[in-house]
Amino acid sequence: MSKLGTLYLVPNTLGDDGRAEQLPPWVLPAQTIAQSAKLQHWIVENAKTARALLKAIDTVSPLVCTIQEMQMSEWRGAARNAKYGDSVKPADLLKPLLAGNDMGLMSEAGVPGVADPGAELVLAAHKLGAQVKPLVGPSSILLGLMASGLNGQRFAFQGYLPHDTHERGSKLKQLEIESRKLQQTQIWIETPYRNAAMLMACINSLAPQSLLCLGIDFSLKSEMITTLAVAEWRKRYSNEAACASLQNRPTVFLLLA
Fold first, then answer.
1. CA of residue 209 relative to chain centroid, distance
2. For the chain, N or C: smaller number of CB within 10 Å?
3. Which residues pair with 133 in a beta bridge?
4. How does pLDDT run across 131-145, given as a tens digit for each residue?
């Protein structure tokens, strides 16, 4: 039996800044770029954004590669459900590994498998006995925790919260109780067009003294990171209309009661 290839977990940038021309060295280290330039077989979450990054990598070392796209129809944090076509299973996408070829797994943004599809493929690679090698790159969750000033010794990532207004408010109150009891930073994300609704839910559901951080557009030129007591957020944003500047921008929410 031939030696199995290695599955490299390749981070993507957190936005379009620098993808088209030169990759920002403060976002993707030279070693990550160099290793990515050697890979000819790829599994990606989104072919369009993957090609944009690979085009930038191509300026470092010309690439000739094949791209397979993961068909992820629905996922929500830890409860995400990876649905493949009837004939396509994770192991099928990893066939180049069995032939001894190294492969790259790329997220649409950030790192594969963390608040992103890909974990099932990584587990399949482990079951095949292949080596899995994570490469260094940006994770909005960790960048948010680092920059929030909140408890970095004890924290929990909650994925997406409910969309229903009542359920979302109840979940926020539950997370606040757990945070206060455990002195644990609660971290979650939201679909960007719901940012205003999420912030208003926080303002209306959480205690005034609880600390809330919004980390927006991490590593991009438009980056904005702010930690305030909920009472201060309430003064700044009195209604959804006041939150217009936050809409449609990738955001990480962090709470410490």
1. 29
2. N
3. 8
4. 999 999 999 999 999
